[in-house]
């Protein structure tokens, strides 16, 4: 089995399990229902909002004359608050003393989609109030007490900043360096790629892995600074990858090269050497659930460093 990078793929109508209408008429019924309920909500609350051709409504509550217009493929940092139109809080992330959360303004770049769609009518520094039908949000997906099926949303979004790829690399490097300093960690070597690597357990024998070798290893993967494991090998089922194989994650070729059997390595990996700009999910709390349902292909969040540990079992 190879530990390859899966394509960044989000099947927009199928991503939420059990939310695919059986027929086209079922989907049309959902659209009609959502639109009617959303219009009733706006009228009942005296909200004067602009209707988008895509089906959501918006108000621009903070404008910017100097900010750049957000365009396709921009990496966007936002602060947001997501509620249902019934007033239930789903998530708030409005503390601007923290770094904004990032996504790529492209097809499949973000869920709920309405925040992504509205990016195209916003500039850096602007705040929009969005009123979204469920079919542009979480559709018929539900999660515990947090998200209910068919919920229309009222969202506040500050489109705080557009980041270049180089700016994201610089940001992630600073995050890693701050983490190392704040936790008094020693022994990591920073490579020119931005990867930080450390050998944490000695190997045995004379065989050292090289290009095109198959390496068998146990692993554990977390977001940097978090305790929750987002992916790991099974106790009796280590993974195998060939060093340099097409499609390998870049950091794997680095971490598994020049190692011996029994050796343990620990790596802090910026996203451009890992899973890249995969689909962003708000709130973060539902990402693991969607991954477990095979609705998204990548467990790690985009544009954030990861913490990877591996123990080498075999080289062949």
From TrEMBL:
What's a Gene Ontology MF term here?
isomerase activity
What's the protein called, per UniProt?
A: peptidylprolyl isomerase
Question: Is-annotated flag, keyword Isomerase?
Answer: yes
UniProt-listed Enzyme Commission number(s)? 5.2.1.8
Per UniProt, which keywords does this protein have? Answer: Isomerase, Rotamase
Catalytic activity reads: [protein]-peptidylproline (omega=180) = [protein]-peptidylproline (omega=0)
One of this protein's Pfam families, by short name?
FKBP_C
The UniProt record lists the PPIase FKBP-type domain at 209-278
Keyword check for Isomerase, yes or no: yes
Checking SUPFAM superfamilies in the record gives:
FKBP-like
Listed PROSITE patterns: PROKAR_LIPOPROTEIN
Q: Which organism is it from?
A: Belliella filtrata
Per UniProt, the enzyme's principal EC class comes to isomerase
């Amino acid at each position: 089995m190879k530990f390859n990078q899966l394509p960044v793929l989000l099947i927009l109508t199928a991503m939420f399990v059990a939310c695919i209408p059986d027929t086209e008429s079922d989907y049309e019924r959902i659209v009609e229902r959502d639109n009617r309920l959303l219009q009733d909500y706006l009228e009942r609350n005296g909200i004067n909002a602009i209707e988008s051709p895509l089906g959501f409504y918006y108000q621009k509550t903070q404008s910017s004359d100097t900010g750049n217009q957000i365009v396709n493929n921009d990496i966007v940092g936002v602060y947001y608050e997501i509620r249902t139109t019934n007033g239930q809080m789903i998530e708030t992330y409005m503390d601007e003393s923290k770094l904004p959360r990032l996504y790529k303004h492209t097809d499949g770049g973000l869920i709920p989609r309405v925040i992504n769609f509205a990016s195209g009518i916003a500039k850096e520094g602007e705040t929009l109030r969005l009123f979204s039908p469920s079919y542009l949000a979480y559709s018929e997906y539900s999660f515990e007490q947090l998200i209910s099926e068919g919920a229309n949303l009222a969202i506040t979004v500050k489109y705080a900043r557009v980041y270049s790829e180089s700016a994201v690399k610089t940001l992630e490097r600073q995050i890693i360096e701050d983490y190392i300093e704040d936790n008094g960690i020693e022994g990591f070597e920073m490579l020119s790629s931005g990867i930080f690597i450390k050998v944490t357990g000695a190997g045995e024998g004379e065989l050292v892995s090289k290009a095109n070798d198959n390496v068998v290893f146990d692993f554990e993967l977390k977001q940097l600074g978090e305790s929750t494991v987002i992916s790991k090998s099974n106790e009796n089922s280590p993974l195998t990858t060939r060093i340099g194989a097409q499609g390998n994650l870049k950091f794997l070729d680095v971490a598994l090269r020049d190692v011996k059997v029994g050796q343990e390595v620990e790596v802090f990996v910026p996203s451009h050497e890992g899973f890249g700009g995969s689909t962003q999910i708000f709130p973060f709390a539902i990402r693991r659930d969607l991954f477990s349902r095979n609705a998204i292909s990548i467990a790690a969040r985009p544009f954030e460093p990861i913490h990877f540990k591996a123990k080498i079992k075999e080289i062949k």
